[in-house]
Amino acid sequence: MIANLVQLAAGEEQNPLLPPGPELLVGTIAFAIVFFFFWKKLLPNINKVLEERRTAIEGGIEEAESMKVEAQSVLEQYKAQLAEARHEAARLRQEAQEQGAALIAEMRAEGQRQREEIIAAGHAQIEADRKAASSALRQDVGKLATDLAGKLVGESLEDHARQSRVIDRFLDELDQKAEAAR
């Protein structure tokens, strides 16, 4: 084959695009040796490195996906807890308002009760003071009236029982006239 190529090459003019036969043969053998070396030694190492990179990238993607899913889950839990906390805060706020309203109503009722007690005690005290003043006034008026009557008549009117009856009758008549005038 090489000899044929050499004869062809000698008989014909050399085509500039085709290399001479022996160079073509040596180039093909050299290419086969380099190709075999690459195929047996370098290509497996390159494939191994590429496979490791592919595995690392896929692992990273899977890890990122799992982290994304986990982050989404944590976000959902956070949102649920936040919603629950808001609901709880609203419930506590409502409960505090109700307790405040109840406390205010209770305080008002207690204040009203105390006011009524104070008014009743004041009325009772006024009534007691009025009765005491009325009694003291009756005694003083009676004493003055009997002293005055005794000075006018010129004798002493010392009968105490009769004196009390006359004074009481006189003051009762005055009270009746005062009530009728109202």
TrEMBL record:
GO terms for molecular function: proton-transporting ATP synthase activity, rotational mechanism; proton-transporting ATPase activity, rotational mechanism. GO terms for cellular component: plasma membrane; proton-transporting ATP synthase complex. The chain crosses the membrane at residues 24-43. Residues 61-102 form a coiled coil. InterPro entries: ATP_synth_B-like_membr_sf, ATP_synth_b/b'su_bac/chlpt, ATP_synth_F0_bsu_bac, ATP_synthase_B_chain. SUPFAM superfamilies: F1F0 ATP synthase subunit B, membrane domain. It is found in: Cell membrane. It comes from the Bacteria. It is a single-pass membrane protein. Keywords: ATP synthesis, Cell membrane, CF(0), Coiled coil, Hydrogen ion transport, Ion transport, Membrane, Transmembrane, Transmembrane helix, Transport. CDD domains: ATP-synt_Fo_b. The keyword Transferase does not apply. F-type ATPases have 2 components, F(1) - the catalytic core - and F(0) - the membrane proton channel. F(1) has five subunits: alpha(3), beta(3), gamma(1), delta(1), epsilon(1). F(0) has three main subunits: a(1), b(2) and c(10-14). The alpha and beta chains form an alternating ring which encloses part of the gamma chain. F(1) is attached to F(0) by a central stalk formed by the gamma and epsilon chains, while a peripheral stalk is formed by the delta and b chains. F(1)F(0) ATP synthase produces ATP from ADP in the presence of a proton or sodium gradient. F-type ATPases consist of two structural domains, F(1) containing the extramembraneous catalytic core and F(0) containing the membrane proton channel, linked together by a central stalk and a peripheral stalk. During catalysis, ATP synthesis in the catalytic domain of F(1) is coupled via a rotary mechanism of the central stalk subunits to proton translocation. Belongs to the ATPase B chain family. This is ATP synthase subunit b. It comes from Streptomyces griseomycini. The gene is atpF.
